[in-house]
Each structure stands twice: as C-alpha cells, then as structure tokens.
Task: inverse folding
C-alpha cells in the first residue's frame, strides 16, 4: 500500500511540506473546528511537529500557537520490566490520509517485550492544562481512529499500576501503584465500543484490583484491516469520545457523536461488575438500621455504589400470588427486582436484587484522581497505556487526539464526529527523505 510508511530510518519532516499541508483549506477548517471548540487544551493532529530535530508530534490548544506537549516514543515493557528494546518514531507507520491529513499506526507486535506507545512524560504534564484532576473537574477526550483489532486503550492518563499480583508481573523491576486518571478505550468489556474510564483514587474500585468506573457506548466500531484499500479506510474513521460531567455525576461514552444507552443484565454474574453489584447491595444494607444479613460492616463507605433510586422511571409487577409480589422498577442507572409482602394493608420489601446496571451513562459522583507530585502520577499516552498484563491491546490507525477541560454538549460532539466521515481525504505532508 503506497501510503503506508514502513518502519525504517527516522523520518525528517520538511518545513515547506508541513506549511503547505497546514494551508490546505479542508485540513485547516477541520483543525480549526477542533481548536475553536471551547475548552480545547491539547490537540494532536499528527501533522504538526517540532520545527527542529527530532521533529516530534506536538499539540496545539485553542487560542495558542506554540508547540505543546511533544510526544516521545517509548516501550513501557523496557521501562518497567527491563526487557525488550527501545522504541523510536520508526516503529510507528504513518498513513498519509485521515481526518486531519495523517495518522499513526499501532501494529500487532509479535515480540512480547515490545509494546510501543507515544507519550507525554509525567514531568512534562504535571499541573498542566491536560492534568485534569480533583473534585468538580470536567473532561472530554476525543480520538479519531480506525480499529483493526483489540479492545484496549486509545489515549489518556492511565497508569494501571505494575504492583498487581499476576503471572505477567513476576520479575518486574519497577513496581508502582496505580495512577489512573482518565482514559478512552476501544471497548474493554464491550469490544469495539467507546469506553470511557475514570478513577477517583488511581487504584481499584469496589474492593477489586481494577478500576471499574467505566461506561460503554451502545454502538460498536467495526474491525478494518490496517492495509485495507484506501477507499475503505477513508470510509472507516470512527470518532471515539468520553465525557465526565460533575454537574450530572455522569461518565458518558460517545461513538460517532452518539451516546447510545447500554445496560448490563444480571451484573452479579459478570466477573468484574459483580463487585459493583456487591457495592450496591452493601450501600443498601448499610442504610437500614442494625446489622443486616449479608452486610459486611468492614466494607468501606467510600466504595459504595449508590445511584439515586428515589424516583422510578417505570414499574412492572412481574408476578403476584398469596400476598407476595415481585416488582421490577427501573431507575435512571439501575433496575431493581424487589420481592414484597402485603402486611397491614401495604407492600413491604423483604428482598431485592440488582437486575440490571446502566453502562452508558455510568453514574460517577466522584472527582478525578489527583496525584500528589510529578513523580507519583502517570504519563499521557497514545496507542497504549501502562498496564500489568502486557497484552498487544488496540491495533489500527489513530488520526487525531483532543483533550478538553469541560464536558462537551451533544451538538459539539456531533460536530467533531462529522470530521473526516464521508469526506474526501485531505492531502498529507510529503516526506521526501522518508523511505517508502
């Protein structure tokens, strides 16, 4: 495929070619749509680079013209396990087309000790505008991508932690606690969906070792080979996005401008969300006077899952006989199956179960984890995140990454999602010194 730049010698970007690409009217309009969206604090279009060597990809922000947050190439297996080789820009193929004119590829690496990513080191972002953290903070993360395979990370500040006890962490040299803040994944538990992930403590949720505050879009992205014909690639761009909105206590995932709802039935049977189901039950039992059967008095209250259930959206009597009935009530974030008995002329609940849990939007009443110092937080990474299993993760093309310090509206989401979809390709910068 002629537009695929294979790994080889380091790329040198000619300044005149870059200037020409930036002046392209279509590309310029698309870039300005992103930059002019209020709250844009960083936007990597994978065309804009440092003018001087080593010509790293850089970000821009609304109202600013300087180069921001240059991306370093890294191999996190080498950084944490001490094995494998160093990564360079030559390990990331380039596609000379996409929503903004160029895209970076992440391949199915066969070397178990090589997991390349692009990153802004923690020391370069701590307390910066992209270091969104703390109580009452909003964030929107948008990634334009073509998914070839995988369900793992696209971009974000998400250091899972390398202290998790599992086979893959045996012999690890650099053990660190989780430093999760916010990140966007290509599905995780719902492969191919947009999956927003956020953490209030950097570590696990509901007494599980993993962070479980995540939402999944109802819509799912297709799998498209990286070497597909150019016409197919041009039709295959997906806009993944997530928003954290403290005004509504919601984490929402968006795919192509739509926040399609998603529910999970019987969460108690799910290997991970069963922990959320137990956190919901413990919160419910804790609200009742005295120690209840099944209540764990040691369960930490800050890990309760207690979305509002004061007003039912709908109510259905599933069965009724001999003074006992089963009622299914739907609330905004939960569906609860209650067993009730008639006593003294009124129905009293004697048992209940979490029948379904809403995955999009996900109820999230917390702030975003705030690392205390620049040596205790994670980097912002693109294409992969630091995690303990060392799996290949997402493979495909990423054509743009944008961070906003507010929760964008549905109209703004639709406008960003329209970029590059059913539009002609934008000419990318030429690379006269790059091997083809």
Result:
């Amino acid at each position: 495929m002629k537009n695929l730049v294979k790994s080889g010698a380091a790329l040198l970007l000619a300044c005149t070619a870059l200037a020409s690409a930036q002046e392209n009217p279509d590309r310029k309009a698309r870039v300005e749509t992103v930059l002019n969206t209020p709250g844009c604090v960083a936007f990597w279009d994978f065309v804009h680079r440092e003018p001087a060597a080593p010509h790293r990809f850089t970000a821009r922000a609304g109202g600013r013209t300087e180069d921001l947050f240059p991306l370093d190439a890294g191999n996190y297996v080498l950084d944490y396990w001490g094995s494998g080789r160093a990564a360079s820009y030559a390990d990331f193929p380039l596609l000379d087309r996409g929503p903004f004119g160029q895209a970076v590829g992440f391949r199915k690496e066969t070397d178990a000790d090589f997991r390349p990513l692009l990153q802004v080191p923690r020391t370069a972002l701590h307390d910066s505008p992209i270091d969104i953290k703390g109580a009452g903070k909003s964030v929107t993360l948008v990634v334009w991508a073509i998914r070839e395979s995988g369900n793992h990370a696209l971009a974000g500040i998400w250091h899972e932690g390398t202290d998790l006890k599992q086979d893959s962490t045996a012999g690890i040299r650099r053990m660190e606690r989780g430093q999760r803040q916010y990140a966007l994944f290509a599905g995780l538990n719902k492969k191919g969906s947009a999956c927003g992930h956020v953490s209030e403590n950097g570590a696990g949720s509901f007494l599980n070792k993993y962070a479980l505050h995540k939402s999944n879009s109802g819509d799912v992205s297709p799998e498209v080979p990286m070497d597909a014909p150019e016409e197919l690639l041009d039709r295959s761009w997906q806009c993944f996005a997530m928003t954290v909105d403290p005004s509504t206590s919601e984490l929402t995932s968006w795919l192509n401008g739509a926040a399609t709802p998603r529910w999970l039935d019987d969460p108690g049977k799910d290997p991970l969300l069963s922990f959320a189901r137990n956190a919901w039950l413990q919160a419910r039992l804790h609200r009742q006077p005295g120690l209840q059967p099944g209540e764990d008095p040691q369960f930490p209250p800050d890990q309760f899952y207690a979305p509002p259930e004061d007003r039912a959206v709908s109510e259905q009597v599933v069965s009724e006989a001999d003074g006992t009935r089963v009622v299914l009530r739907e609330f905004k974030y939960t569906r609860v199956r209650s067993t009730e008995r008639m006593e003294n002329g009124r129905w009293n609940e004697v048992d209940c179960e979490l029948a379904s849990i809403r995955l999009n939007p996900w109820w999230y009443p917390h702030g975003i984890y705030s690392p205390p110092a620049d040596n205790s937080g994670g980097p912002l990474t693109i294409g992969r995140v630091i995690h303990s299993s060392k799996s290949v993760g997402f493979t495909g093309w990423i054509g743009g990454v944008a961070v906003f310090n507010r929760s964008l509206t549905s109209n703004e989401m639709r406008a960003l999602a329209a970029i590059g979809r059913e539009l002609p390709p934008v000419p990318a910068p030429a690379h006269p010194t790059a091997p083809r």
Summary: The chain has a mean pLDDT of 90. Residues 273-286 form the longest helix (14 residues). The chain is about 15% helix and 30% strand.
